[in-house]
Amino acid sequence: MKATRHATYNLNYHIVWVPKYRNSVLVNEVADRVRTILHEIAEDKGLEILDLTVQPDHVHLFVSSPPKNEPALLANWFKGISSRKYNHRYADHDSEKIGWARGYYAGTAGHVSTETVENYIQQHKQDES
């Protein structure tokens, strides 16, 4: 369970996206660089990467985020910032650039037990007293 000033949350998103034309470009050094950049983005945005798999033709990202960030924003950050950073740092020629296909998959994952809800309610009852 995580908390901000005004919220207690357990929001985890599974986001999957593919390179343009589903080309198998995410291998070896390219995959390592993309992994590093995705971790940089998470750190910069205050997110926690729970799991990350870079396959030759797609990326699986499992990330925890505060409630203020909607899944579409997360996908846009990771896809947009990663391609810009990668292309700026490593692509000397257009053929070396990374581009992502327009779409993505986003799913939610998390579990709230009855005990968690009861603890939350009790905490707020005590805060009001």
Primary descriptors:
single chain, 129 residues, alpha+beta, Alpha-Beta Plaits, 6 strands, DNA binding
Average per-residue pLDDT, rounded, comes to 89
- At CATH's second level, what is the architecture? 2-Layer Sandwich
Helix % is: 40-55%
Strand tally is 6
Please state the CA-atom Rg, rounded to the nearest Å.
Answer: 18 Å
Q: What name is given to the CATH topology?
A: Alpha-Beta Plaits
**CATH C-level class:** Alpha Beta
| Low-pLDDT residue intervals, each spanning 5 or more residues | none
Protein name: Transposase IS200-family protein
InterPro entries: Transposase_17 (IPR002686), Transposase_17_sf (IPR036515)
GO biological process, one term: DNA transposition
GO molecular function, one term: transposase activity
Notes on the protein architecture:
The structure is a single chain. The chain is an alpha+beta fold. The chain has a single domain, classed as Alpha-Beta Plaits (2-Layer Sandwich). Helices cover 41% and strands 23% of the residues. It is built from 3 helices and 6 strands. The protein has a 4-stranded antiparallel beta sheet with strand order 4-5-3-6, with helices on one face. A two-stranded antiparallel sheet has the order 1-2. Strand 1 (2-3) and strand 2 (8-9) form a beta hairpin. It is elongated. Residues 8-124 form the Transposase IS200-like domain. GO terms for molecular function: DNA binding; transposase activity.
Give the helices and strands, then pairings:
Layout: E1 2-3, E2 8-9, E3 12-17, H1 28-45, E4 48-55, E5 58-64, H2 71-90, E6 105-109, H3 114-128
Helix pairs in contact: 1-2
